[in-house]
Amino acid sequence: MSRPVYVQEFPTPPTVGEVIELTGDEGRHAVSVKRTSVGEQIELVDGHGTRAVITVTGVSGKDRLTGVVDCAANEPASRPTVTVIQALPKAARSELTVDLLTQAGADVIVPWQAGRSVANWGKKQDKGLAKWRAAARAAAKQSRRSRIPEITPVADQAAVAALIQAAPLALMLHEDATGKITDQPVAQVDSVVLIIGPEGGISPAELDAFTTAGAHLVRLGPEVLRTASAGMVALAALGAVTDRW
Q1: Radius of gyration, CA atoms only, the chain
Q2: pLDDT along the chain (245 residues), means of 10
Q3: pLDDT of residue 56
Q4: Residue 176 to residues 180, 182, 187, 190, 231, Cα–Cα distance (Å)
Q5: pLDDT in the model for residue 146
Q6: What three-state secondary structure class fits 198?
Q7: Which of 58, 96, 196, 242 lies at 20 to 30 Å from 228 by C-alpha?
Q8: Could you give the CA distance from residue 201 to residue 20 in angstroms, rounded to a whole number?
Q9: Contact between residue 72 and residue 14 where contact means Cβ atoms under 8 Å apart
Q10: Dihedral pair phi/psi, residue 123, rounded to 5°
């Protein structure tokens, strides 16, 4: 059975034999929810690649746990790194979308207020970003990731076009595309931008702006996938044809 994972900031890189204390919300989850006991092993990650395996040596109160570092390492980021530009999905699928992208290995997730997005965050952007960041953190812990995806501020059409122009390779999922991900040189670049459109589809103006900026249209087979799941499937396809997997 996999060891449970908790998020912990490390002021300095952890070293073997060091005593570390876990408190706050993460400590409460370990002590009061998971009922962690002395002698068990857990993993602590900082969300930026550092992972430490800890043997629990003490539990006190409802939210305090101490342990000794058995081993620690900084795990390199996957290559190529993948930035997913995700059109805002319906509210009911919003956090699920981030959960799936995180499980599939997205490095950066950019919320995109697409022209045909059903959702419109408007003045609620801060609330939406907080929910997405919480969903990414929870999914990273569940999937035992040492790196939590960065959730950037909301992007508009111009910001998305700028990200495409700056990327070594940008792929946009589109149902009318004839090309495939495997047609693209994904294994020869250090980073990829992946654009996922909204439920209503990418508008003609967006399609023109993004292809002009350099995006390549690709499709994931004969089926048309939901915006909530398309990114996860595309990340799996990228993983299979690169060193990410």
Answers
A1: 20
A2: 91 95 95 94 97 96 95 95 96 93 98 92 92 97 96 97 98 93 94 95 96 96 89 96 93
A3: 97
A4: 11, 17, 24, 27, 17
A5: 96
A6: coil
A7: 242
A8: 49
A9: yes
A10: -80, 0
